[in-house]
Design brief:
192 residues; alpha/beta; Dihydrofolate Reductase, subunit A; eight-stranded mixed sheet; 8 strands; globular
Length: 192
């Protein structure tokens, strides 16, 4: 069974949107990852480490539309170019997919994701896509969380986790590290 991993930058109060600022997700604290925290390469090393485990990428429609035109031509994301990509959307058409960014398929439902996870292959990483991550978390489909938690409280923005009344979900800490700039790396496996 393939593992579904959410990876992202998160404020201490759980906000994951607009870490670099950008269209469609503006709020007064947009761009928080790069504005207020001292950059230390070792604190961001997780992003490079994930490349070895990434065999496919998954996005919600809005994150795909934001990332595709930038990551497709980015030297920093060249390793992702030919990886299979899955976009979860009920509205995106095949004609709307970015040219030249490797094989991309549109998934229409959680059932499609369940079937994808049953298939052959390695880990599928979700970048951005807060709304998709919340839905998949509530449905019990995410297997691991790779988070860089920033020492900032934002209040506004999209939360990684929903506030819906559901059964508790236990996590098992796989790895953690703290950095002098206050960022913490936490990698959790979802306990089933």
């Amino acid at each position: 069974m393939r593992k579904l991993v959410y990876t992202g930058f998160m404020s201490l109060d759980g906000v994951v949107d607009s870490p670099g600022g950008g269209p469609g997700e503006e709020h007064r604290s947009g761009g928080w990852v790069f504005k207020d925290i001292e950059f230390l390469p070792e604190a961001f090393a997780l992003k490079g480490e994930e490349l070895a485990d990434t065999t496919a990428l998954m996005f919600g429609r809005r994150s795909y539309e934001a990332f595709a035109p930038i990551w497709r031509d980015s030297e920093d994301h060249a390793a992702y170019k030919e990886l299979p990509k899955f976009v979860v959307s009920s509205t995106l058409s095949e004609e709307d997919l970015a040219d030249g960014w490797g094989p991309t398929a549109v998934l229409r439902s959680e059932e499609d994701i369940v079937e994808l996870k049953k298939g052959e292959g390695g880990a599928i990483f979700i970048h951005g896509s807060a709304e998709l991550a919340r839905r998949l978390s509530d449905a019990g489909l995410i297997d691991q969380y790779n988070l860089l938690v920033f020492p900032i409280l934002l209040g506004d923005g999209k939360s990684l986790f929903s506030r819906s009344d559901k059964e508790k979900q236990m996590l098992s800490l796989r790895e953690s590290a703290a950095y002098p700039n206050g960022i913490m790396k936490v990698i959790y496996d979802v306990t089933r």
